[in-house]
């Protein structure tokens, strides 16, 4: 192995340094973004509307020119060696952009042909990808007749035709119902498990939580937080639970210091408490008040809370409104 190869093996799948983008209308979409995505990672890019996610993805996939900074893909510099960098990437853009009057099989083989994949190989790959996307039985149908979810899966299958080492998806499941979304999650997990690094943007926070190991949160052109998903979730010191109660709740609820207890209806309680607090104390107090808890579940909106806390108007406030130190750049 040459020294050069050794370097690129160790290189991040994506390395972005002090990336800036000012559009012609002088909107500063990116104000110095730096991030690294490790090879093999499943990485989420989260942020509110207009944060700069699509601009970042556009630059990485060479659809948008950068104003300053650098981007490299598996060690290949995007500006110095654009075509080599592009060959490593598969892009699933947010908008459907295939020819609706072509058949899925043709869309895939033509796309591969455009990237120099020999015809016979392209046909083999197309069958494999259409089967993985559960579209093999639609291979010869007019794409226009596919359902919305099928069209989205076709976009992923097409991006995989060049066997990219880095797959980038801009809101791949937007507007797709939960069942199809879960099917797509399974496909993406398989693609990642087979070795492809994946970066996705999404507005579905449970999607990032279920798929991604690492994430960056971007707001107004800056990264406000990045690190492992678990570490970010652990930063939240408040946990929410929904308690189902046997029978009907009394008119007055007991007070449990340090917690917020609210009846959301006659037999359901909404509980928020510090992570470190003992649940037994809560159950004991509820028991003393004649309230029997039949079942409980965690409210799975922690990422949402984190997101609001980091990017919202009260970004300098903790979840209880207490002042927290400025968000660290990196969470170990
Ligand atoms: N082609 C363009 N010309 C001028 N301004 C643009 C262009 N594309 C995006 N912008 C602006 O750059 C900023 C970032 O937009 P971008 O599309 O990157 O955000 P986003 O995070 O992808 O948002 P969303 O979640 O809504 O897709 C916005 O203020 C947007 O109006
Ligand atoms: Mg966008």
Automatic annotation (TrEMBL):
Molecular-function annotations in GO: ATP binding
Matching InterPro entries: AAA+_ATPase, ABC_transporter-like_ATP-bd, ABC_transporter-like_CS, ABC_transporter_ATP-binding, P-loop_NTPase
Start and end residues of each ABC transporter domain: 14-245
Domain of life: Bacteria
Keywords: ATP-binding, Nucleotide-binding, Transport
SMART domains: AAA
Pfam families: ABC_tran
Protein name: ABC transporter ATP-binding protein
């Amino acid at each position: 192995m040459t020294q050069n190869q050794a370097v690129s093996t160790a290189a991040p799948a994506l390395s972005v340094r002090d990336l800036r983008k000012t559009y012609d209308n002088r909107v500063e979409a990116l104000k110095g973004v730096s991030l690294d995505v490790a090879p093999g990672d499943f990485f989420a890019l989260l942020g509110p509307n207009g944060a700069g996610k699509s601009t970042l993805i556009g630059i990485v996939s060479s659809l948008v020119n950068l104003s300053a900074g650098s981007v490299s893909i598996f060690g290949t510099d995007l500006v110095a060696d654009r075509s080599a960098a592009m060959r490593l990437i598969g892009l699933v853009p947010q908008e459907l952009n295939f020819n609706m009057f072509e058949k899925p099989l043709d869309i895939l083989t033509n796309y591969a042909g455009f990237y120099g994949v020999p015809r016979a190989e392209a046909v083999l790959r197309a069958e494999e990808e259409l089967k993985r996307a559960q579209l093999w039985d639609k291979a010869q149908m007019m794409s226009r007749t596919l359902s919305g979810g099928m069209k989205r899966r076709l976009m992923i299958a097409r991006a995989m035709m060049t066997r990219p080492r880095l797959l980038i998806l801009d809101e791949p499941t937007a507007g797709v119902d939960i069942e199809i979304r879960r099917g797509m999650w399974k496909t993406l997990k398989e693609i990642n498990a087979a070795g492809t690094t994946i970066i996705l943007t999404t507005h579905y926070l449970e999607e990032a939580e279920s798929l991604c190991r690492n994430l960056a949160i971007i707001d107004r052109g800056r990264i406000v937080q990045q690190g492992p998903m678990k570490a970010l979730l652990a930063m939240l010191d408040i946990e929410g639970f929904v308690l189902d109660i046997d029978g009907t709740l009394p008119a007055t609820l007991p007070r449990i210091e340090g917690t917020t207890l609210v009846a959301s209806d006659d037999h359901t309680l909404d509980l928020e408490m510090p992570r470190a607090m003992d649940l037994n104390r809560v159950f004991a107090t509820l028991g003393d008040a004649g309230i029997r808890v039949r079942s409980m579940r965690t409210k799975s909106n922690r990422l949402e809370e984190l997101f609001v806390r980091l990017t919202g108007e009260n970004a300098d406030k903790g979840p209880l409104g207490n002042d927290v130190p400025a968000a660290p750049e990196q969470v170990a």
